[in-house]
Task: structure prediction
Amino acid sequence: MDKLLITGGTALKGEIAISGAKNAALPLMATALMAEEGMVLDNLPSLADTDCMCELLAHLGVESVREGDTVSFASARGAETDAPYEIVRKMRASVLVLGPLLARYGRARVSLPGGCAIGSRPVDLHIMAMEALGAKVTLEEGDVLAEAAGGLIGGDVVFPTVSVGATENVLMAAALAKGTSRLINVAREPEIIDLAECLIAMGAKISGQGTDVIEVEGVTALTSCRHAVVADRIEAGTFALAAAITQGQITLTHARADHLASLFAAMAASGVQVEIDGDRITVTATERPRPVDITTDPYPGFPTDLQAQFMALMTVASGTSQVAETIFENRFMHVPELARMGANIQVNGGHALVRGVEQLTAAPVMATDLRASVSLVLAALVAEGETTLQRVYHLDRGYDRLEEKLSACGAKIRRVRG
Ligand code: EPZ
Result:
């Protein structure tokens, strides 16, 4: 298994071009199952997760060809509607083929994705939503079997709690349902807006995306389209925090500052300067960060996907801060690894009390999940000595050319193939 060797102490300076968003790319790729004549996605990041989704789509009859950051998807040949465990277990987001398969073919068999490091990751809200559109859903031998022989019927879908993935699944399903659907208490993330805009380009009739109620008037078929994946706000936020923790200056390009308001507010409170000029964001830090309390929340609140990275910054703050994680039940896997580097953090349920220290020290540490891994990279960039980060396959799931982008800003980081 590959590992990363990182020597801390360099203030990062330079420019980083932000890639397309992983969490937009995956649902957008699933819509290829619905496009009668295929589709093209630009700005599609090259990640382990997008490779896995291409593998699943090929299994389901949609071949794809990548040329740089553009991927062309052929129209589905045949109606394979079973997403098998050996593919789904590698990536939970495989569940996002449920809505498209059900909408297009009236049938879908998708293996239950199983949990992961950050939580049990149930799909009950996905199932509830499909049943609300008239599907008959049963669980068989670890698979979700959904059927709607006469097609899905539009209707009201009311979510008891906000779910990004379930919102995406039901949005795709409702696009081809008979009649109108009102999706209530849905996620408002930018990735939802991007998905809706792509579906509209394919002929879907959708309004309200970005608010907590989306209205969909079903159509009989979706045509092809060419769509550019929205910029990755989590990647951008991660590199903004790399500038902050190393007290350097990084300019992010091809970024969407409007998607990062909650992070930038916390960074400003911590003493970090953020200058916005269109799609260019310059982040400058010249002093030790001040402590800032954060609580994760669905968009537009503080993103749970930036919680670990912000906590890394707080480990070297000039005081004590509190990090509250409200979205996932086990998203503090980075804490014991940060502690190995000298961080002083007490966890109590979904709350972490972070007492800032003057200096972190390098140590061998272990990546456990995607965002915990990158928080260890941030800590290593400022720790004294050389940190070894094991199990970097977690990182490769969600960051396109991470060490290349950081090295270009002066980071001493290299990959050892294992
Ligand atoms: C998406 O996961 C993202 N993944 C996650 O990013 C992100 O952390 C999460 O949204 C929240 O923003 C992708 O977009 C591929 P949820 P998702 O459904 O859709 C519970 C990363 O690091 N829930 O909004 O799975 C769930 O357990 C990844 O890039 C149910 O109870 O998240 C969680 O506690 C990690 N039943 C909460 O809702 C369900 O049926 C929010 O989950 C579904 C979810």
